[in-house]
């Protein structure tokens, strides 16, 4: 079943790699995590490979539930928006996606920063909307407890709505800059948001004019019920974590099916599951790399990672024993979909704690694909052509080598098969993702518009 | 009275110029305000002129008290931290100073963003600490009223303390990246802040290691009593607004005199008053430029600017009449020092509202200096050599020309006189300002240190 559209690719810039032991790998740049030149090198590599975007995850705390996590894993990172702005100056075409939490930020700041990044990059910014999931983050923001899952999503819905209103608060042609008539802006085209909601009151207008893309691209990752609903209503890209084709297909048709409720078409939302590729020139080389990574995981780091992913402390349990009795899904106030995925994986395959953390230390719940460039391409093509994905978020095990291999070996194979672009389609991230530029709500519904002042 | 040290210079990047009518001036780039390439051009010009830093003011609302302000003045701007990060990639030596308010932000985010900018720029970041001063900003952040002046400063004190603790939460050598020993970081050198105060509780540690400069440079601008005290305790650069040598000298010795209370030396704080230069190749050319700018001010924009500066609505009063009876200083919940300065200026010189706004439409309360490059240099030299300033924050009337003139005509004259550097002294902003790198509190007082975990 051939598709006429092309696959979309994101490069996950987790430095120095997506594998928890990546920093110990012989070819990885362990100190690159705070070295801007290293990020630039990675971003330029992704741009050379014609990736749609680079993507930065984020969090607002170190993981310190387990003493050795702080010692054995990489717990520092640059802040995504400052970093992506610098990369905007050093790249030309690639999209720039930053994770920002709606739980610990304010809509006005977030609207403004992404609008600024959109101007600085000439229309290449994207916001990955998350709601955060650790208690440690709450304690860095004067709160004792992390907000409950349902409330986080309620807040997120309102937050995204306000941000979009702020982006629309200046119509596209509101800036006039007419020196003769002393008219810098047309105030009939500038609108207050006057939002009064449960979580926020925001008067507006924004103090940045409408961004080049209209709205920066909205990305989401939640796969819980409220996460899917929020995505169907507001997201333009979804990053998800699925292990099997069937799971991915079910999710794909579920979410695409929800779009019509909000007046949206299936092509308005691109579903891009995460993929952790271990690439070898031969199958054996790929297997050796995988084994080497598993050796490099310190036990405590592995247990800490797994505990974090399921929001349950596994450190008191024997590492070669089975998973203990876990709480019910309803009691988990973290990443619910990740919890479910790992619990069912352990049950299905009877894995010990060690085997389970080795299994997830690279892909962290995402799909691991291993093999030669041809085999990697086959595995991507299968999902792309069978209703499971519109593209993939590539999570190289280590950097820069893991991404260089993908760009130099896999991308040409995908291009040969006609699955991936050989040049960028346009100048903005929306152009390259094949997403339309949103119409301004005020232009669209003139009856509702009202000047800020006058 | 010759000084052995050199003058420091900041370039105020108000786009398209510091004069309120700059965007109407024939040679200004009116649309430059959202054009990254224009900021890059200005920053590179300042770097060519060996300026210590570029400086970005900021605010979180449009001014909309007066209907025409939105139409006749420039009310949009890019967000400073995203913008400066891009400029970090496009410059080599110049310092990058961003204004961020303590009233509408969180210490964890601010500490992290400036630390990131410091890494990205290789030690060139600076934070201008302000407390905001308009009701419109409050209404963009779910608050009905702007916080009172005293409370803003109380919050600011605590905010800055927490940010500095977060910058110190990783000792300078905490990052080890030892692959063999599986030791990425030395956790005995990573510290929680465990701050519990009136305004904030912040557990820490930060998720960025200690910045290259130790602490990004701290700048302040407040000249009220709590502003001066906050500056004496925490600031390393002060931007101030003074019209006369005597006022500037009084302030200079007052603030420098307060430093010893906090164990600081006079050289630990650089005082850099704002200066608005109108440069001509002849005195007449400078006078003509000034007259041209005054012609270009729309009446409503002039009245709105003046009203904003004194936090009092002047629009109901005849523009060619005197200032009305103004409230007492105690009742003003805005920039108190600016209010006082303008009120006494109007009283002293008997200016009408129109004359007063023409007078301040360029310098906005800062010192206006006008003349040939020699005369401009004389005026800077006088303050620098007579205990009134360690340098100046240059506010070009229009851009890029106003800065190009300063760099091409005034800087060479200052260099000839031995008053200004001919090359950068070092790689970081601290090096160039002649500020020492702060010792980490934990290294300094080992008895107080305590590992985060373990």
List keywords for this structure.
homodimer; 454 residues; alpha/beta; TIM Barrel; 2 domains; 16 helices; 39% helix; 13% strand; globular; disordered C terminus; FMN (chains A, B); Luciferase-like_dom (chains A, B); LLM class flavin-dependent oxidoreductase (chains A, B)
Describe the structure concisely.
Chains A, B: This is LLM class flavin-dependent oxidoreductase. Chains A, B: Keywords: Flavoprotein, FMN, Monooxygenase, Oxidoreductase. 2 copies of one chain form a homodimer. The first copy, chain A, is α/β, with parallel strands linked by helices.
Would you kindly provide a written description of the structure presented here, covering whatever features stand out?
The structure is a homodimer of 454-residue chains. Chain A has 2 domains: 356 residues, Alpha-Beta Barrel (TIM Barrel); 63 residues, no CATH class. Chain A has 16 helices and 13 strands. Chain A has 454 residues and is of the alpha/beta class. At the A-B interface, helix 2, helix 3, helix 4, strand 6 and strand 8 of A face helix 2, helix 3, helix 4, strand 6 and strand 8 of B.
């Amino acid at each position: 079943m051939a598709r006429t559209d092309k696959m979309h690719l994101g490069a996950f810039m987790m430095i120095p790699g997506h594998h928890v032991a990546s920093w110990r790998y012989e070819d990885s740049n362990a100190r690159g995590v705070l070295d801007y030149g290293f990020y630039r090198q990675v971003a330029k590599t992704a741009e050379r490979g014609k990736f749609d975007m680079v993507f930065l995850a984020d969090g607002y705390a170190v993981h310190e539930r387990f003493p050795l996590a702080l010692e054995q894993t990489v717990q520092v990172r640059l802040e995504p928006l400052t970093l992506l702005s610098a990369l905007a100056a050093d790249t030309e075409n690639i999209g720039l996606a930053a994770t920002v939490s709606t739980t610990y930020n304010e809509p006005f700041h977030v609207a403004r920063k992404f609008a600024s990044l959109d101007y600085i990059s000439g229309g290449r910014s994207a916001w990955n909307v998350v709601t955060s999931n650790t208690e440690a983050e709450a304690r860095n923001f004067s709160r004792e407890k992390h907000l409950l899952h349902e409330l986080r999503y309620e807040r997120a819905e309102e937050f995204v709505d306000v941000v979009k209103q702020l982006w629309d608060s200046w119509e596209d042609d509101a800036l006039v800059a007419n020196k003769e008539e002393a008219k810098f802006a047309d105030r009939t085209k500038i609108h207050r948001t006057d939002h009064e909601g449960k979580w926020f009151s925001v008067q507006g207008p924004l103090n940045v004019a409408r961004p080049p893309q209209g709205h920066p691209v909205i990305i989401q990752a939640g796969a819980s019920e409220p996460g899917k609903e929020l995505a169907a209503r507001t997201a333009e890209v979804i990053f998800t974590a699925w292990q099997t084709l069937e799971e991915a297909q079910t999710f794909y048709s579920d979410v695409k099916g929800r779009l019509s409720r909000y007046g949206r078409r299936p092509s308005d939302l691109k579903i891009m599951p995460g993929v952790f590729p271990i690439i070898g020139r031969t199958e054996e080389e790929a297997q050796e790399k995988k084994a080497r990574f598993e050796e490099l995981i310190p036990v405590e780091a592995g247990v800490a990672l797994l505990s974090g992913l399921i929001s349950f402390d596994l450190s008191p349990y024997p590492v070669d024993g089975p998973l203990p009795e876990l709480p019910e899904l309803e009691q988990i106030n973290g990443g619910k979909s990740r919890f479910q995925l790992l619990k069912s994986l352990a049950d299905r395959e009877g894995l010990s704690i060690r085997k389970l953390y080795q299994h997830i230390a690279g892909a962290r719940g995402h799909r691991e694909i291993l093999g030669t460039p041809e085999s990697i391409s086959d595995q991507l093509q299968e999902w792309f052509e069978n209703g499971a994905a519109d593209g993939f978020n590539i999570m190289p095990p280590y950097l820069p080598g893991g991404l260089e291999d993908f760009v130099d070996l896999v991308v040409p194979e995908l291009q040969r098969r006609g699955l991936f672009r050989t040049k960028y389609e346009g100048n903005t991230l929306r152009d390259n993702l094949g997403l339309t530029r949103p119409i301004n709500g005020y232009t669209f519904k003139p009856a509702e518009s009202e000047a800020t002042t006058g």
